[in-house]
Design a protein that fits this description.
Blueprint (H helix, E strand, L loop, with lengths): L2 H21 L14 H19 L5 H9 L6 H23 L13 E4 L6 H12 L3 E5 L14 H10 L4 H4 L3 E5 L18 H11 L3 E3 L6 H12 L8 E3 L4 E6 L4 H12 L15 H5 L4 H7 L3 H5 L3 E4 L5 H10 L4 H10 L4 E4 L3 H11 L5 H17 L7 E4 L1 H5 L1 H10 L1 H20 L6 E4 L3 H12 L3 H8 L3 H12 L3 E4 L1 H5 L1 H23 L6
Helix pairs in contact: 3-4, 10-12, 14-16, 15-17, 16-17, 20-21, 20-22, 23-25
Length: about 525
Amino acid sequence: MTDSQNEERRLSLDEQMRELLKRANVAWVSQSSGIDEERPRQDARRAKEEALRGLREFNLKPRDIRDYLDRFVVRQDEAKKALAVAICDHYNHVRLCLENPELEREERAKHNIVLLGPTGVGKTYLMRRIAKLINVPFVKADATKFSETGYVGHDVEDLVRDLVRAADGNVELARYGIIYPDEVDKIASAPATAGRDVSGRGVQTNMLKLMEETDVGLFSQTDLLGQIQAVMDMQRGKDPGPRTISTRHILFIVSGAFDRLADIVRRRVKSGHIGFASAGGQSDGFQESDWLKLAQTSDFVEYGFEPEFIGRLPVRIVCEPLGVKDLERILMCAEGNVLEQYKRDFAGYGIELKVDPDAIPLIAARAAEEKTGARGLMTVLERTLRHAKFELPSSPVRTLVLTPRMVEDPDGELVRILSDRDGAIRDTVRTEARLALEGMLKGAGVRVTFAPGALDRLAGMIIDSGKEPGEFCRERFKDLEYGVRLIVRSSGQTVFCVTSRLVEEPAEELSRRIAASARRQKQTEDRTGTSDGR
């Protein structure tokens, strides 16, 4: 075989391997390229150091984290405090270890956490916000998808590999990330199981190893593509990087509803305290969350957890169920709440979604009936607005008000809105014209009011013109802000009324009001003896 044939064969193999790696989104660097490889290495090292800078400079206090979480999650005050303390303790230790590597050798129990509480109370959202605040990689997974190693199903070590991917391949940063297995109560061992419990006790045992200090391979046995890439890097003389990652500083936070745990705690407490429920009535009014707060390790073991497993979760936090008032606060106060999402959805179609305050309690009450916490809000809003979101983008309606009547009868209210086409158009134009004028006079420091019939007349003129309300108002009332400022300066008035006469003849009416205001100011000065002619 000639040299040219060998070269063609090598290029052909290169092309095949490039295509293979391209499909898996793996970057390809040709062996024959003349690119200086030292600069990419330096850039990679700088990127890794920059990613760790936030941990090296970690200085948050528990109150800082609690206050941050208050912006997004309603209630759960005790849970926020406990989480804030555990997170600060853990990442203060991480910072000290980065400053002084000698501390790595000291034994220290991690603040691994178990979150208990019903669905929809904010357990996952709390952790996502904390990970975003600290800027560390975060991985959430359903614990029920894992099985004991060697059986069909996912391996728990995949959680650690997913953490590396969440850190964009930065193994050093992934060493300090957060792993969040949800629905962990579903891997409790069954009381009586014939044969091996491969998705219960087996998963607990494997997860126990991760929560301790262990090294996890970055490539699983089934990751053929990753192994091919590692071999190619080695052949090119490229630094292959670490092959394993230590879980010593990875924080594990598990969560679940633990439905049966409250009954277990109740039986233990009542059997251990004769007359607990009757004499003194201490358990009167106890909710499920109150019983969960009394849970001990023995209760978790009876629930189906291995003592070693639950013992590695020393921080136990109970989240409170949400009531109607809590759901109202979520809609009105929480940043990024589901109502804001719906407003953005409608805005994508050019429709402004407004909310009548009287509709909020009704939405919250119906969401509470769903028994799914904050998720019930989306259920109610989806049921209320689904058809409107389908129909209105193809209609002339550009403003939708979410009223109590729409919550009670969404289909009937939508039919009314669509059937009253002309009325809907006029309502939309009225609203946009009002907002435009209020915006134009915002800098003048006055509150804008409208005389009867003024907005209707203005809306009619806008519809006849065929222009956008904002454009029409800016053209017709171009001198309005300047004139109002003169009136405010001479009279000190804080309210400006838009009348039909101002709409019909803006320049003449504005000039008349300016002159009248100046006359009143002159008369006032004459009466008080402060005029220049005195």
